[in-house]
């Protein structure tokens, strides 16, 4: 039978897109008793992170999870607790990649081939971007098969059975394959029907099946992303965990009307609410209808490092309104100097305010937030990713705050309490001025912008996330160069 060219006609406007998450791995290859997709990274299983990606993708209509047969109930429990808005079905996978794909195709037998798109994605690639998902779906308007790949930074060599080099292919023509791999359902169905008639059929991915058994079908390549890594080896677990820690979630885009509707009637407690970012958050929330209680050392003589004073402040706010929906802590101290020249009292003050205070606020706020399914918002600094000379105490405490955020998001998930962390770029605040003096106009982020993003995060469903706030688009090459130059100056 001659190969057909499914690209001859585009899919109909009624096309549905189904994400098939391939989660059949066992973990034995890296010596694990639990499948890799059920390991936790950044407070959630790898599988849940991956499912969230497709749940958030506007172009995905359904999700099908092909799970390791011995752990189907575990996957079903993850789906149940996560409360995804996209329909998710969990089915047992097969004994091989090809068998699992075929079982997925069998489950989709009732779907029309020309008006259904399928995206096959490795469950252990939890850092897939929304851009790649959207690009794959868009590419299926013109192509019947789509792969995702990135250029190879390394020279690829070909060797024989004795490990002697036989060829060095031209690197400019080589790519490293990723997932998802996307197809019109009719195309991948036909490819597999032909493949199973071949006694020697074996393939490590689905585009290879199309390439070999439907040779007349062009396979379009969408640009991948270096972060779209596959958790394969033990070290990958640690790398992925660090990438999650460094990745910044995007704050939702809300209108003024949205904010007013969601804030009216709520109660917010802001520690550090007299100056800088704290004052900005409090004022912004008040203008949109929230009842805000501000506490600070200067205005109310509230020491955030004293658990009793924190508890009293929260009790006062709750007594006045009968609820606490949001708790924000912007209080902090930034003292510049070498650690070996810092006296013990200053060390204790830094640790109590910058780390023990967030811990104490979290403990005291939890019972109130559990009643309202509310959120705690903490603040970190760009120095959390790399300790800076002469403020080691501050940067290390901010790194600890990020880990605290991610850990508590996991602990509190079952109680419906959210916690996030704002990571503002260098911001114009009284604390920064005291530490660094006057800095050139236009080089600092405004406290008002941080406040606006903070409120939008409080009104979101995000939890366990580090949310960047920047003056410039961080992906813009000019902005990256400018940031690097500023870093060198400092």
From TrEMBL:
<dbReference type="InterPro" id="IPR012115">
    <property type="entry name" value="CDP-ribitol_syn"/>
</dbReference>
<dbReference type="InterPro" id="IPR036291">
    <property type="entry name" value="NAD(P)-bd_dom_sf"/>
</dbReference>
<feature type="site" description="Transition state stabilizer">
    <location>
        <position position="29"/>
    </location>
</feature>
<dbReference type="InterPro" id="IPR029044">
    <property type="entry name" value="Nucleotide-diphossugar_trans"/>
</dbReference>
<dbReference type="InterPro" id="IPR001228">
    <property type="entry name" value="IspD"/>
</dbReference>
<keyword id="KW-0808">Transferase</keyword>
<feature type="site" description="Positions MEP for the nucleophilic attack">
    <location>
        <position position="230"/>
    </location>
</feature>
<dbReference type="InterPro" id="IPR034683">
    <property type="entry name" value="IspD/TarI"/>
</dbReference>
<comment type="similarity">
    <text>Belongs to the short-chain dehydrogenases/reductases (SDR) family.</text>
</comment>
<dbReference type="GO" id="GO:0050518">
    <property type="term" value="F:2-C-methyl-D-erythritol 4-phosphate cytidylyltransferase activity"/>
</dbReference>
<dbReference type="Pfam" id="PF01128">
    <property type="entry name" value="IspD"/>
</dbReference>
<dbReference type="InterPro" id="IPR050088">
    <property type="entry name" value="IspD/TarI_cytidylyltransf_bact"/>
</dbReference>
<protein>
    <recommendedName>
        <fullName>2-C-methyl-D-erythritol 4-phosphate cytidylyltransferase</fullName>
        <ecNumber>2.7.7.60</ecNumber>
    </recommendedName>
</protein>
<comment type="function">
    <text>Catalyzes the formation of 4-diphosphocytidyl-2-C-methyl-D-erythritol from CTP and 2-C-methyl-D-erythritol 4-phosphate (MEP).</text>
</comment>
<feature type="site" description="Positions MEP for the nucleophilic attack">
    <location>
        <position position="171"/>
    </location>
</feature>
<comment type="pathway">
    <text>Isoprenoid biosynthesis; isopentenyl diphosphate biosynthesis via DXP pathway; isopentenyl diphosphate from 1-deoxy-D-xylulose 5-phosphate: step 2/6.</text>
</comment>
<dbReference type="GO" id="GO:0019288">
    <property type="term" value="P:isopentenyl diphosphate biosynthetic process, methylerythritol 4-phosphate pathway"/>
</dbReference>
<keyword id="KW-0414">Isoprene biosynthesis</keyword>
<dbReference type="InterPro" id="IPR002347">
    <property type="entry name" value="SDR_fam"/>
</dbReference>
<feature type="site" description="Transition state stabilizer">
    <location>
        <position position="36"/>
    </location>
</feature>
<dbReference type="InterPro" id="IPR020904">
    <property type="entry name" value="Sc_DH/Rdtase_CS"/>
</dbReference>
<keyword id="KW-0548">Nucleotidyltransferase</keyword>
<dbReference type="Pfam" id="PF00106">
    <property type="entry name" value="adh_short"/>
</dbReference>
<comment type="similarity">
    <text>Belongs to the IspD/TarI cytidylyltransferase family. IspD subfamily.</text>
</comment>
